[in-house]
Description:
Order of helices and strands: EHEEEEEEHEEEHEEEHEE
Number of helices: 4
Shape: globular
Low-confidence stretches: none
Radius of gyration: 16 Å
Distance between the termini: 9 Å
Structural class: alpha/beta
Amino acid sequence: xxxxxxxxxxxxxxxxxxxxxxxxxxxxxxxxxxxxxxxxxxxxxxxxxxxxxxxxxxxxxxxxxxxxxxxxxxxxxxxxxxxxxxxxxxxxxxxxxxxxxxxxxxxxxxxxxxxxxxxxxxxxxxxxxxxxxxxxxxxxxxxxxxxxxxxxxxxxxxxxxxxxxxxxxxxxxxxxxxxxxxxxxxxxxxxxxxxxxxxxxxxxxxxxxxxxxxxxxxxxxxxxxxxxxxxxxx
Length: 234
């Protein structure tokens, strides 16, 4: 398997795409899917989730995950025939890191919850439906979020959480996007942002938090941070 694959929204900043290519990454770009809100219709975290070494993917993008071989579970087989409005669009929008799965348990696919429970993964329930969008994964035990409920529930499990101000990530059609949606760990110790993270008012805290967890942060371009539904590492 190519070890340098990233899954991204096809609407990623072109400057960010060029930078990732220069760094040696191959991008799998998701196109907009029918039935979903325009703003999130190509967001990877709306259609795919990696838990440990297993991918859970929507049937409409399953053909793009051939790199995962047999470790792919294809669910939600009726996407193209339905309109998915919240909360029916958050089937895959969970944050899997370390031995944790943070999600709105009620609206997460049963296959995902069952897999987590059968494999001893700690499922942390949150009222925030867009859990992955709202979580920037820093390490197996550290995250950044704007969401108070995620902060409270993850802190209670011993996870190190940095809370930042909301409203400083752009998303077409909405007042703002989410911190987790504009970035992703492209390596275990490299966190990449679609845009310039230095433009965020909490940049100093973000930098110090990542430094503490031995994670370097890079801005892929000089534009404002833009939510593209996370940068997922294959």
